[in-house]
Amino acid sequence: MKLFANSLSTAKGLMVLLMLTVFSCGTQAASILSLSGTAEGVKYEDDAELRLSVIDWSAPEQLAAIETAYRQYQDDSDLEAFLETVDQQDTRGYLFTAAATGYRIKYAWKQDRGNNQVMHFLVTPGLKTRNPYLWETPNNNSPAFTLVQVEMSDENGVAKSSLDGEIVFNEQGKLQLQSFEALPQFATLEDSTPYYLK
Asked: How many whole angstroms separate alpha carbon 128 and alpha carbon 123?
């Protein structure tokens, strides 16, 4: 009888643990977009893996907040004030390299062009700062943030960054890279989003 009671208690405990696990999985935000590929400019080929996951696109008011703050930053060079505004925005996803810790996406918007998509992500801290020893060329210019622009054609695309180019405003007042086509690649990517999320 005592053995039965212990077994019943164990079964109840396992059931509670199972329910908590299911609940926690259900409350985690699923990525609406997953990209995977290889980064350029790493010292060792084994460190080239790169992943980018988007939880959601930034709301218009969040885009506007960062755009306004960036204009102000251009005028007064107050990096601390700009980063304070950036940090106040919801994290929209993560970019992971071979470093143990990823980069937070604080600004995310996209343009659809038929089968092609152009995506823009402001990440903090700046790329190549999590583990600077992975890279042939370190980030000496903008350690606090980086704008990453991704152009996808069907399932494949390329990423370039403000480490190699200038951040400008487009006609709609959104952040993008100047002269994207002329910039060197930061990474090659492919769409690895599960089919049921597309």
From this structure: 11
- pTM for this model (two decimals): 0.82
- How would you write the pLDDT of the chain (198 residues) with one tens digit per residue? 444 444 444 444 444 334 434 333 333 468 899 999 999 999 999 999 999 999 999 999 999 999 999 999 999 999 999 999 999 999 999 999 988 789 999 999 999 888 889 999 999 999 999 888 899 998 877 889 999 999 999 889 999 999 999 999 999 999 999 999 999 999 999 999 886 766
Residue pair 54/108 in contact by the 8 Å Cβ criterion: yes
Show me where the domains of the chain are located: 1-29, 31-197
